[in-house]
Amino acid sequence: MKSVVINKEDLRYNIEKIKEHANTNLPDDNGNKVKIIAVVKTNGYGLGIVEYTKFLIDNGIDFFAVSTIEEALKLRGAGIKEKILMLSSTSVEEDVKTLVENNVVITIGSKETAEVAEKIGRELNKKVKAHIKIDTGFGRYGFVYNNREEMIKTLKPLKNIKIEGTFTHFSNAYYDDKYTKLQFDRFMDCIEVLKMNDIETGMLHVCNTSAFIKFPNMHLNAVRVGSAFTGRISFKNSMGLRKIGYLKANVAEIKELPKGFNIGYSNVYTTKKDTKVAIIPCGYADGVNIQTGIDMFRTIDKIRYIVGDMKNLFRKQQLFVNINGQNCPILGRVGTYHVTVDITGKDVKINDEVVFNTNIKHVDSSIRREWK
Q1: 326-358 pLDDT, tens per residue?
Q2: pLDDT score recorded for residue 298
Q3: 148 and 254 assigned to the same domain
Q4: C-alpha distances in angstroms, 79 versus 50, 74, 75, 220, 234?
Q5: Is the pLDDT of residue 299 over 90?
Q6: Domain total for the chain?
Q7: Residues 158 and 268 in one domain
Q8: Is the pLDDT of residue 190 over 50?
Q9: Are residues 203 and 324 in the same domain?
Q10: Which of 21, 71, 311, 329 qualifies as a cystine partner to 318, CB 3.0-4.6 A?
Q11: Strands 262-263, 222-225: pairing kind
Q12: Quick check: is 1 in a domain?
């Protein structure tokens, strides 16, 4: 049976490393340490959103962020009462009402969202908790940074909304330090203008995982940490974080194939000799050979990705799985739910455990998460 295996001690180690790094800079003027907002989107980065969040709570994390209403409701439905921030802004009245009724902190990034939230607060006779989102150059949610007049006109009259924070999101902190600094400066300029107009800004947070690691001077009051907890980050791992989670399956079938036999879709691989193979019931639907967003890479990285993909296609570069401590190459294309593995000359039996070093964020949420 397939499962994602999560080592608790390695995860606990990463949590402690992140806590240490969050407080490498001095406390703010009020003596407060930097707050860690744990981002638990995409099923808790593949760890299982409920189990993962509860583990973080047990290890001293008490503020969480999600990207969808469904994620927020799943946490509330599991009895998690800690603070949850919905990172995406929405002007859909029904959605805003659902979030407010479930005590989720909403994001306000437009005049329309502010008006809807103000109306719902008035109808429910309660203060709607919100963070303000400023778009400093991502082009997604948030007030555009140079449209300060709209921000002031929108935020100043609010009576039924309690602003608990203000934030932005960096588009390329992985590699582009210059643009990240520009976004940061745009954000801080906006904060200054809001304060000059007596608009509460609450806690300030701009750092995603990459900026959190690379720019301690940008930690401000809080940081949003996601992939760092799993140790699977898109740039140099300077903190020594451990990779969390791997996909586990078992050998389902073993067979002998003759020389000149095709394997997999499109006949891209043909055996060069008599070959002993194992069939493993895991494929790309389980996250095998799925890579995270080439959209986040530099041009040179995109070129490398394409070249690497072509090499895989022509079998000049192979993917491997680990069976009994032995690296075994995958033959042919990765299928939806199966791969064929070369075990010629290796000691492999039916039901032996197979380990895939894949990014567990891409492993289907229906597959069991095994904490050990």
Answers
A1: 999 999 999 999 999 999 999 999 999 999 988
A2: 47
A3: no
A4: 10, 9, 7, 30, 33
A5: no
A6: 2
A7: no
A8: yes
A9: no
A10: 329
A11: unpaired
A12: no
To the nearest whole percent, how much of the chain has pLDDT over 90? 80
Domain containing residue 72: CATH number:
3.20.20.10
Same domain, 208 and 340: no
Each residue of 147-173: pLDDT tens digit?
Answer: 999 999 999 999 999 999 999 999 988
Which one of 197, 230, 263 terminates a domain? 230
Considering the domain architecture, whether residues 226 and 356 belong to the same structural domain is answered as: no
Calpha distance 164→162 (Å, rounded): 6
Task: Note whether residue 238 is domain-resident.
Answer: no
Question: 4: pLDDT confidence band, cut at 50, 70 and 90?
Answer: very high
Together in a domain, 224 and 251: no
What is the pLDDT confidence band of residue 306, given thresholds at 50, 70 and 90? very low
Q: Evaluate if pTM is beyond 0.85.
A: yes
Catalytic residue among 195, 255, 259, 265: 265
Q: Exposed (0-12), middle (13-18) or buried (19+): which is 259, by Cβ within 10 Å?
A: exposed
Choose one of 165, 196, 230: the last residue of a domain: 230
Q: Is 265 labeled as catalytic in the residue annotation?
A: yes
Q: Which candidate in 17, 41, 74, 162 is catalytic?
A: 41
Query: Residue 43, by phi and psi: left (phi above 0), alpha (psi -120 to 50) or beta?
Result: left
Same domain, 135 and 215: yes
Query: Does residue 255 sit in the same domain as residue 351?
Result: yes
Residues β-bridged to residue 39: 65
Domain coverage including residue 252: 246-371
Q: Which of 52, 53, 56 is nearest to 15 (CA)?
A: 56
In a domain, 2, yes or no: no
